[in-house]
Specification:
This protein has 277 residues and is α/β, with parallel strands linked by helices. The chain contains 7 helices and 10 strands. Helix 2 links the parallel strand 4 and strand 5.
């Protein structure tokens, strides 16, 4: 019990220390911080404003502005003169056109010296896992479509296990291809799963897109529209950002992005890009 109390006090002091750093760095009465695609994810601090699409599937409570990236429109008028625009695992859910417009609108909405920071699902990493027959730890427990199957299997005392590079859930067998599709193209026509091995890395994303059952795709599922760190960096430079660079977890020149609640690690499926206007 004493160790738990000490741990709580340490975390509380760490939060207070970060708060002091942020207050020293920013005039919070005159700075604007926006988190896009926020869903239910909230900061420890109250200076953030949250933006999401009206039909995101998350609760509306706590969302300050509604905006659909796929509309390819300008940001709401209230999103301007921003200090930081942040998105966490958003761009893998939208089209390339929506990503480009989001970056352009962000550059326009940021004040000079403002920070754009995006955490993005790493398609290249997930593809490399599939090619090598590796099932990541995030599958199946971290995939929404499989959680109920796992719970049901456990309730029935059936096996949920990994054997010979396969996951067994209540007698059903899933391989690295299933894990790859769950991460990148949940609504893919599974009858064509075996074709994945005969397609090169450059063509596989278009193949996925061509076989997505669009009418079944939900907002939380990935788009299968390939985007890499290099593509995003190029879009940032084209939009007018002065500096663009890669970042690892918790790396940012903005102390507002150093917290672990708003900006958590995502089981390895991650790359980050930061840009300065």
């Amino acid at each position: 019990m004493l160790s738990k109390i000490k741990g709580f006090r340490f975390r509380q002091r760490k939060k207070e220390w970060l708060s002091e750093i942020i207050k020293d760095h920013y005039d919070l009465n005159n700075e604007k911080f926006f988190s896009f695609g926020a869903g239910n994810q909230r900061s420890k601090f109250d200076y953030w404003k949250y933006v999401d699409m009206p039909t995101s599937g998350y609760q509306d409570e706590g969302i300050d502005y509604f905006y659909d990236l796929e509309d390819l429109k300008e940001f709401p008028d209230e999103i301007n003169d921003a200090t930081v625009i942040f998105s966490s695992f958003l761009l893998e859910h939208v089209s390339i056109e929506a990503t480009r417009n989001f970056i352009q609108q962000s550059c326009s909405a940021l004040k000079s010296g403002g920070i754009w920071h995006a955490k993005v699902h790493d398609y290249d990493y997930s593809l490399r896992l599939m090619r090598n027959g590796v099932i990541p730890i995030k599958f199946p427990f971290g995939i929404r479509e499989y959680r109920s199957k796992v719970k049901e299997a456990m309730n029935n005392r059936s096996n949920v296990a990994i054997r010979a590079g396969q996951v067994i859930i209540g007698g059903e067998v899933y391989d690295a291809h299933d894990a790859f599709l769950a991460h990148n193209a949940a609504c893919f026509d599974r009858s064509k799963k075996s074709d994945l091995d005969g397609i090169g890395d450059e063509e596989i994303w278009q193949f996925l897109n061509n076989n997505i059952e669009v009418d079944k795709r939900k907002p939380h599922q990935h788009n299968a529209d390939y985007v890499s760190a290099d593509i995003i960096k190029k879009m940032c430079l084209e939009a007018g950002f002065s500096e663009v660079y890669s970042v690892a977890p918790y790396q940012s020149i903005s102390p507002a992005l150093w917290e672990d609640v708003l900006n958590p690690i995502h089981d390895g499926f991650y790359f980050g890009v930061e840009a300065i206007k």
